[in-house]
Amino acid sequence: MTGLDPTSAEQAAPLLPPVDPSVLTVDELADTGRRIAARSEDMGLRRWFWGEGVVLLGMLRLAEAVGDDLPPFVVDFVDRHLSQGIAPDHVNSIIPGAACAWLYRETGERRYAAACEQLADWLAARTGPGPLEHWPGGVWADTAFMAGTFLVHCGRALDRPDLVGEAARQWLAHADVLQDPASGLFAHGSHRGETIWCFWGRANAWTALAGVEILAADPSLDRIRERLAAQLTALADTQPAHGVWDVLVDGHPETRGIVETSATAGIAAALFRAATLGVSPELLRPAAWRALSGLHPYVTKDGTVTRTSAGTVLQLVPFGYSVIRDDRIQPWGQGLGLHAYAAAVVTRLCR
């Protein structure tokens, strides 16, 4: 290969050694998850947007996994926004609605159902025969989660299987554009109708998590099961020995050694949950524990998930992913961390 610039990769911070999986007891997992949640509450999250939505759903999943009550932070956040009125202006504004659906199932309060219906109608008005565009002319993996996961939770809460079916259709439509038929990995997105074959880690986390949400709602969806299995098998095959994937998961020389914890957390959650759903558990479950063992040292005592890359627009060349800052706390890092630790707790308890 010519024209490569491995400068950023060569200057990547040293890796933190993984912990022994035996350290990850139910108590340790639950304590770490609660610290991540507490740190998330202190971030000053105020927007009805995608990072906040990932945190809200992660908090709900963790509380369910460890047997805690509904998190007051989630209830207060959602109620405050509903009282002010929500006005989605982008597909990334949809995912907080998954928390509305969850709260409706738990409480039966009609205001949560009304918010779900409003967001579902907004999506329906923008949906055509193909995949939802993230931006005009661009299909991004992010949308499979931001819209698809909402549709699953909304469909289950409102007893509308058509919404779950739409989530499945969207997932497969995105896979047709973004999933590499040779490897099974997902690209970040397309630009002006052309797929850019950069196998961004968080793209694979978004699509894998959306896939398990859909499969959990309808285990009969064999096409999603097959394509999700291909993706997760490829991720297990490309996983570094220390467990934490690079920002591009295929070992590209321009990003090799630049680890990305939010992607690893999201992929770990998907691996745990897919294994529980019967997708190659003998392969995926060990990969999930390797991922969490590698991730665990990157969670600080105050609950910050470090080495999470900033919000990342589609990059047209692999080098672009090597220069995204990762030195700040990010809500999606916290949220995907919550998903990972919740899924690990459930796995431990179900042994």
Structural overview:
The chain is an all-alpha fold. It has a single domain (25-349), classed as Alpha/alpha barrel (Glycosyltransferase), CATH 1.50.10.10. It is 55% helix and 2% strand. The chain has 14 helices and 2 strands. The protein has helices at residues 7-10, 26-41, 50-66, 72-84, 97-107, 110-124, 141-146, 148-157, 161-178, 201-217, 222-238, 261-276, 281-295, 331-349; strands at 189-191, 194-196. The protein has a two-stranded antiparallel sheet with strand order 1-2. A hairpin with a 2-residue loop joins β1 (189-191) and β2. α2 packs antiparallel against α14, α3 runs parallel beside α14 (331-349) and α5 (97-107) runs parallel beside α8 (148-157). It starts with 6 loop residues before the first helix and ends with a helix. The mean pLDDT is 97.
Binned strand content: under 5%
- Cα end-to-end separation: 46 Å
Helix fraction by DSSP (H/I, runs of at least 4): 55-70%
What is the H/E order? HHHHHHHHHEEHHHHH
Number of helices: 14
Shape annotation: globular
InterPro entries: 6-hairpin_glycosidase_sf, 6hp_glycosidase-like_sf, Glyco_hydro_88, PolySaccharide_Degr_Enz
Keywords: Hydrolase
GO molecular function, one term: hydrolase activity
Protein name: Unsaturated rhamnogalacturonyl hydrolase
